[in-house]
Amino acid sequence: MKTGVSFGSHLMPGWHPADDLPDPPKPRRTWRHKFGEAFRGVKLGVRGQSSFYVHFFFAALAVLAGFLLECGWAEWCLVALAVGLVLTAELFNSALETLFHGLDSDTKNRLVGVLDIAAGAVLVASSTAVVVGGIVFSRKLLLFAGWL
C-alpha cells in the first residue's frame, strides 16, 4: 500500500533516504599537493612562534661548529637528528597552541595542562640536543686543543 511518504519519514521528520548514502569519494591528492600543504604548515609554524628563531639560531651555531670542527658523518648524523628533534617538537607545540587558542573557554578549562605538556616536550627535546651537542663538540674541541 503506497502512501506517498518515504519509508521512515513519518518516524523521522526531515529525514530523506539520500541522507544515509555515503559521501562521494574525494579525489586523490597528488604528492605535489601533499608536499605543498606540508611546506605551508612548516611556514605557518615558523612564522607563528618567536621561539623558532631561538631554535634556528642554535641550529645555525651547531652547523657552524660542525664545519669548523670538521665533524665526521656519524657526528653530523647526531647533530642533524638533534636539530630535527627540536624543530619537530616545536612544530607539534605550535600546532597544539594554534588548536588550543581556537577552542571555547569551557574546553580550554578542561584541557588546562595541554600547553604545558607540549612546552615540556620541547624542553626535553632541547635538553637532549644540548647533551648530544655537548658530547659531539666537546670531544672535537678537546681533540682540537690537543688534550685528547
What this model shows, in words?
The chain is mostly helical and 148 residues long. The protein is built from 5 helices and no strands. It has helices spanning 31-48, 51-68, 73-101, 105-110, 114-145. The longest helix has 32 residues, at 114-145. 11% of the residues are buried.
Please give the structural blueprint:
Elements lengths: L30 H18 L2 H18 L4 H29 L3 H6 L3 H32 L3
Helix pairs in contact: 1-3, 2-3, 3-5
Following the backbone from N to C, one meets helices and strands in this order, namely HHHHH
Shape: elongated
Number of helices: 5
Regions with little confidence, pLDDT below 50 for 5+ residues: none
> What structural category characterises the helix and strand content?
mainly alpha
Q: Mean pLDDT across all residues, rounded?
A: 87
The fraction of residues in strands falls at under 5%
What does the radius of gyration come to? Answer: 26 Å
State the end-to-end CA separation. Answer: 97 Å
Main sheet record: none
Number of strands: 0
Percent of residues in helices: 55-70%
